[in-house]
Structure formats: structure tokens, C-alpha cells
Amino acid sequence: MNSWFTELQTKDMALSCRVTEILHREKTPYQELAVYNTVPFGRMLVLDDIIQTTMVDEFVYHEMIVHVGLNTHPAPRRVLVIGGGDGGTIREVVKHQEVERAALVEIDGRVIEAARKFLPEISSGLTDPRVEIIVDDGISYVEKNKNTYEMIIIDSTDPIGAATGLFEAAFYRNVAEALTEDGLFVAQTESPFFNRDLIRRAYREVAEIFPLTRLYLANIPSYPGGLWTFTLGSKRHDPLKINKPVLASLNTKYYSLEVHKAAFTLPPFVAALTK
Ligand code: SAM
Q1: In whole angstroms, what is the distance from residue 195 CA to residue 251 CA?
Q2: How far is the CA of 20 from the centre of ligand 1 (A)?
Q3: For 209, phi and psi rounded to 5 degrees?
Q4: How many domains does the chain contain in total?
Q5: How confident is the model over 13-36, as pLDDT tens digits?
Q6: Is the pLDDT assigned to residue 205 strictly greater than 70?
């Protein structure tokens, strides 16, 4: 097979990669779902022609969206993941033995099924007995659950369709209420090259609600521009004052204590988005 998958990363820029096999394609009630085998990235989950996760670089995203927050909170017992149907975020969450319960709220059950079948290395954590899988809209779910979680992780698609509300102030307010009194949350907040307005707005809105707001970075080559932001809102604990050891049992390939600290060192053009 000699064909190419192309993601239009912005309306004027594309990433193409050679596909060796189309493993799966379907139209779910929410989106077009595909799993390809590609030469540069291995197996790749694609929603509405946008790359969600790939075998080659998924560890960077999943480790960084999880361990920065879980290593900042002194005792995270209950964790909520919104989106993240591929299971990679949950896989990293359940590496923390102190987590007693992890809920995954994914709007599209077909994403979970496809990940179980075609991406077993990523979805492996979904079978952990502490994990509860809820197929529902994360926006209404947080509205209904108050004062419950030490950490909430928003592992969403880009702010289009069902995910639009996951980037809005009303949602961040409900996230704050769903957290315990010393809880914190992390959301993926897109590219500092191509989504500056979104990052600036999200940071400002989070800072209006949470006493502590921090932006941090990681490198994810399959995402537009490579450099990616995460926004953390915290009621009490500061990720810059981390005092927990990074356990070898986390078995990470990107995250370490040094990377945790370095991720908050922002180049001036990124720091400017927080002013
Ligand atoms: N790592 C990916 C990225 O940054 O592109 C995100 C991966 S994960 C597959 C994103 C998931 O969010 C999708 O499966 C999508 O169905 C889910 N999602 C979108 N809007 C949602 C909502 N309102 N509630 C729950 N899940 C949602």
C-alpha cells in the first residue's frame, strides 16, 4: 500500500505521513474515527482527520498531562479524566498507587472500543479495577459532581464540536467546584505558535477562578508545531514547589523531576501569553 494521510494542521499548513495500512474507519455519532498504521509514527488514532495520539510520541503527552499534577498533589486519591478515550492518560494515572479511584468520562464510546482493539499498549490501563468508565459528556458530568476529586485532567480534542465547551470559563468554574478544597486540574491547551489567543484566554479565565495558575510545555512531534502547552489551575499546591520523589515505578520515558521543573521555564514569547 502506498498512500498518505494528511492532516490540515492549520488552514495553510499540513502534516503528511505515509500509511502502510488502514486498520479501521467508521463514522461514530460524534466524529469520523480512523486508526492507521504509518511509517513515521506507527499506529495512529485520528478523529475528524486530526491526529489524536501515535505510538511513537504518545508517552510525552500522556506522561506530561498526568504526572506533573499527580506529583504536585500530596495525596491524590480520586482522579477524573475528561475525554482521553484512547486510555493513555488513565494508563499513567493508575501507575500511582495512592490513587484509589479513577473515572474516565468520554463522550464517544467508540473511541474507547477502537483503542482497546487497535492500541492495546495505550489502552492497557482501562482494565485496572480502580477505573470506572463513563460514556457521557464531560461538561454535564462535572456539573453534577461537587467536591469530589483531588485532580481533574482534561484530555480533550481541539476546541471544535463537543469539545468547544471544555475550553470555556463556565466549565472551568464547574471543574473548580468538582475539585476538593486543595484540588488541581490540568488541561491540554494547544500550540503556542498557532493557538495563542486560545492559550491567552484559557490562562486568564483559569487565573480568575484558581488562586494558582501555571502554563507548562512539552514536545509532541505529531501535533501542530511540535511544542505543546498545558494549563494547570490549583487551589493550594504549587507545581513549582514539588516535594514528592518521582518514583522509579512510574517507569517514564519523558517525565522526570528535572523535566517537571524545566517544563515551567517558558520562552518569553510563551510567557507573554500569561501576562
Ligand atoms: N491527546 C489528544 C489531543 O490532544 O488531541 C486527545 C485525545 S482523546 C482521544 C480526546 C477525546 O475527547 C476524544 O475521544 C473525544 O471524543 C473526547 N471528547 C470531546 N469532547 C468531549 C466532551 N465534551 N466530553 C467528554 N469527552 C469529550
Answers
A1: 32
A2: 26
A3: -105, -40
A4: 2
A5: 999 999 999 999 999 999 999 999
A6: yes
Specify whether 120 is located in the same domain as 36.
no
Instruction: Assess whether 124 and 222 both reside in one domain.
Output: yes
Provide the annotated active-site residues.
Answer: 155
CB of residue 84 inside a 6 A radius of ligand 1:
yes
* Residues 148 and 226 placed together within one structural domain of the fold: yes
Cross-strand pairs, 135 = 106
CA-closest residue to ligand 1 atom 16:
108
pTM equals 0.97
Q: How far is the CA of 131 from the centre of ligand 1 (A)?
A: 18
Helix, strand, or coil here: 56? coil
Domain of residue 39: give its range. 3-54
Residue range 121-128: mean pLDDT, rounded: 98
Pairing of strands 42-47, 32-38: antiparallel
| Whether 260 and 175 share a structural domain | yes
Ligand 1 contacts CB of residue 157 (under 6 A): yes
228-263 per-position pLDDT tens digit = 999 999 999 999 999 888 888 999 999 999 999 999
The answer to whether the CB of 122 is under 6 A from ligand 1 is no
Confidence tier at 1 by pLDDT (50, 70, 90): low
The answer to whether residues 149 and 179 touch, using CB atoms and an 8 Å cutoff, is: yes
Residue nearest to atom 5 of ligand 1 (CA): 52
Q: Which of 226, 249, 229 is nearest to 41 (CA)?
A: 226
Atom 17 in ligand 1: residue holding the nearest Cα: 83
* Residues 30-44, mean pLDDT to the nearest whole number: 98
Ligand 1 pocket: which of 59, 156, 199 to mutate (most atoms within 8 A of CB): 156
Task: Please choose, from the candidates 100, 102, 83, the residue with its C-alpha nearest in 3D space to the C-alpha of residue 91.
Answer: 102
Query: Counting atoms of ligand 1 from 1, which one is nearest the CA of 155?
Result: 6
Q: How confident is the model at residue 121 (pLDDT cuts 50, 70, 90)?
A: very high
